[in-house]
Amino acid sequence: MAVILNTDFSTIADHIGQARIAGLQQRSELYDSVVVIVNLQEAYLDVEVDLLNEFWQSYQISLAETQVPSNLLSSISILHQHVINRALDGAGDKYTDINDWLRDESITVYETYADMSEEAGWPIDHDRIKTDAVLSWT
């Protein structure tokens, strides 16, 4: 049975984590834009009047989207189910736990991905999680 390569799995997991962080960064960027508009000098009151409502509404909408998009959770589930359905361990048996396969393949995933994976019903063991240093969005 053909199963995804460990390098491809890692790349996909990283991309899914990046997609989530991009959504969170969007919210942060919208808020920063609102702050700039609010802090405009009095001479630019017309600019503030023209822009503030739309940017504030966009920011409010982004706040409502704090949950992980269901398409990301679904993608994680499909990826993990593929491994469980097709991967065989050294004895030729199917894996029953994604963590066993991750461990055998020396794969670690970023915290962002692991958090989403847990939300999707696939908890990742701590020894398979690496820090989001590259992915963080503070």
Task: Please name the defining characteristics of this protein.
disordered C terminus; 138 residues; 2 strands; rod-shaped; mainly alpha; single chain
User: Main sheet: which strands, in order across?
Assistant: 1-2
User: In terms of per-residue confidence, which ranges show pLDDT below 50 for 5 or more consecutive residues?
Assistant: 134-138
Query: Whole-Å distance between the termini?
Result: 42 Å
How many strands?
A: 2
Helix-residue proportion? 55-70%
Coarse shape: rod-shaped
Average pLDDT, rounded to a whole number, is: 85
**What fraction of residues sit in β-strands?**
under 5%
Q: What sequence of helices (H) and strands (E) makes up the elements?
A: HHHHEHE
Cα-atom Rg, whole angstroms? 20 Å
Number of helices: 5
Number of individual domains: 1
Structural class call reads: mainly alpha
Main pleated-sheet profile? 2 strands, parallel
